[in-house]
Write a structure and sequence with these properties.
Layout: H1 3-24, H2 30-35, H3 42-53, H4 56-69, H5 74-98, H6 103-110, H7 114-146, H8 151-201, H9 206-209, H10 221-231, H11 245-261, H12 263-266, H13 275-293, H14 296-311, E1 319-320, H15 326-334, E2 337-338, E3 347-348, E4 361-362, H16 366-374, H17 379-417, H18 423-446, H19 457-476, H20 482-502, H21 532-548, H22 555-565
Antiparallel strand pairs: 1-3, 2-4
Length: 576
């Protein structure tokens, strides 16, 4: 069966599954809409959390970034997985014990201030909107390539699917849909990796295949990859690192604490029955995430080797442009792969020298999606990858949109401006807010702003600089005041945004060596996507300083903070 027909069948079947689950899991109350009724099993919630967390960035972009950054790409593996450890140990059980629906609600209650709640809503929306732009781009790219529709048409279809199961089912529908989406995306990621590992090394485990010898030789795969990239002028794959030590530390820290502060992940820990289940759920999420994250380095290395070996079979031997394979032609149509015949000889020269390199664009995002085609895998595998990429983008988009809509309906409308509305009215407001959030996300997908179009790492920096410090201080310090928390969140968010806007023209570049004296303009050499760590430090410092010169929190707030930190069962009042 031809590829396009198979792709329509596989993607259509998964969409039918998502819609069927949404109809079955329709939310009938605000508790079901916001936290799926609070009765999700920890293992199921761990799987849904993994899907919520592993966005188009994890599925499509991460291996591509590692493929071109080499060793330096480990920053994403360390930052994104390390953040879940912080979340499991420092935030999830305490927030679940507090027992409220949303992050802004916790901040508003802990810092005894409607203003703090409103500021938290603003921070949440800024971070979530920035993140959702990347998901919408991923949906459009995957549709335009595999279903051969326009980017705009693909984005409309994705919006319609999310609208149906998110507006109808809320968190309840999203949770069960994300469980299905996890199964789709993890199969779509690991099956091609197993095939390619077997083809290259004879080892069915990609994680082990990366360190194995190539079939029929005594040469290790990574040694061969080092040889190939160095012959063409690039630095050694296994030792090259684009980031200096300060930048790498800041980048890793920003991704870690940004992960722990992202609201669409945190809200998932309110869906389990008990406090202990929140930590268990985080542990299972790490297990499910690790399956993909331990496979990603192998996918990256093998994809880079296949790509280089196809275009440049050996130094001095160039592929004729007229003889380019079908996958090359397919990806040229998307604009993510571009060739320019600089010397007019009709041959493709792919080197590290920008003056002679004729592959003028090889987008990171093609590596995972094009990898099965480059490796000449069966069409059903390629179709499965398309479904997996869409599942990853849709699952995270739904979680982000729910976080945005609940912030608007529950935290602003019910919590601040119209506290007297009924549950039925609030549920209707939640669905309207969800529809509005989807419309806004779609608009930004069609018209992505310059500062956010290149990466979702910025969203982690914004969450790191605004939400994470407020949560940490709210849980572990009873001395931080409402004035301190508000000033800290505003300072952290504003400083990070100002730094990003100042340097938006040179964000997330794979090699900064050609920037000349531009890169040193970065504060301590820290690039914009890593600046969330500095913003977080500023947030902590401002909050602590302002708290010292303002009146201490009321006694009932100090008791609430102490109660949150006491292990469940040690005192009479547990969840409240």
């Amino acid at each position: 069966m031809e590829l396009q027909t198979l792709t329509y069948l596989v993607v259509g079947a998964t969409f039918g599954l998502y819609i069927g689950i949404a109809i079955w899991a329709r939310a009938g109350s605000t508790k079901e809409f916001y936290v799926a009724g609070g009765g999700i099993h920890p293992v199921a919630n761990g799987m849904a959390t993994a899907a919520d967390w592993m966005s188009a960035a994890s599925f499509i972009s991460m291996a591509g970034m590692i493929a071109f950054m080499g060793y330096g790409g480990s920053v994403f593996l360390m930052g994104w997985t390390g953040g879940f450890v912080l979340l499991a140990l420092l935030l999830a059980p305490y927030l679940r014990k507090f027992g409220k629906f949303t992050v802004p609600e916790f901040i508003g209650d802990r810092f005894y201030s409607r203003t703090a709640r409103i500021v938290a809503v603003i921070c949440l929306i800024v971070a979530s909107v920035t993140y959702v732009i990347g998901q919408m781009k991923g949906i459009g790219v995957a549709f335009s390539r595999f279903l051969e529709v326009s980017y705009d048409a693909g984005l409309f279809i994705g919006m319609a699917i999310v609208f149906f199961y998110a507006v109808l089912g809320g968190m309840k529908g999203i949770t069960y849909t994300q469980i299905a989406q996890y199964c789709v995306l993890i199969l779509a990621y690991t099956i091609p990796a197993i095939f390619i590992s077997l083809n290259l090394t004879g080892n069915p485990f990609p994680q082990l295949g990366l360190g194995s010898t190539l079939v029929g030789t005594d040469t290790f795969l990574l040694d061969r990859l080092d040889q190939v990239v160095m012959e063409l002028g690039w630095a050694e794959y296994t030792t090259s690192a684009r980031l200096n030590m300060t930048n790498m530390f800041a980048y890793t820290l920003s991704l870690m604490i940004g992960t722990a502060g992202l609201p669409h992940v945190i809200i998932r820990f309110f869906t389990v029955p008990k406090v202990a289940d929140a930590r268990t759920s985080a542990g299972w999420a790490l297990v499910f995430i690790a399956i993909l994250y331990t496979t990603a380095p192998a996918v990256a290395g093998m994809a880079r080797l296949n790509l280089m070996s196809t275009i440049e079979p050996s130094p001095g031997q160039h592929l004729a442009y007229d003889d380019r394979p079908a996958w090359f032609k397919n990806w040229e149509k998307t604009g993510l792969l571009q060739f320019e015949d600089k010397n007019g000889d009709g041959l493709i020269q792919y080197t590290a020298d920008l003056t002679t390199n004729e592959m003028v664009k090889v987008d990171n995002d093609i590596m995972v999606l094009a990898n099965p085609e480059i490796a000449k895998l069966p069409n059903w595998v390629i179709a499965l990858v398309a479904a997996g990429g869409l599942a990853a983008a849709l699952s995270t988009a739904a979680g982000l949109l729910l976080a945005i809509s609940s912030a608007i309906s529950h935290d602003l409308l019910k919590g601040v401006f119209m506290p007297g509305i009924t549950e039925k009215q609030e549920l209707m407001a939640s669905r309207i807010a969800m529809a509005a959030a989807i419309a806004m996300a779609g608009y930004l997908g069609f018209n992505p702003p310059d500062f956010a179009a290149g990466t979702v790492a910025l969203a982690f920096g914004l969450a790191a600089s605004s939400i994470f410090p407020a949560l940490m201080m709210g849980i572990f310090s009873h001395r931080v005041t409402k004035e301190g928390a508000i000033a800290g969140m505003i300072a952290g968010l504003c400083v990070t945004l100002l730094y990003v806007f100042q340097h938006k023209g040179i964000m997330f570049i794979a090699d900064t060596s050609f920037l000349g004296d531009m890169a040193p303009n970065w504060f301590l050499g820290i690039e914009p996507n890593a600046f969330g760590a500095v913003g977080a430090i500023i947030n902590f410092a401002v909050a602590a300083g302002v708290s010292k010169v303002t009146a201490e929190p009321p006694e009932d707030i100090r008791r609430m903070v102490e109660n949150i930190r006491v292990p469940s069962g040690a005192i009479a009042t547990q969840d409240h």
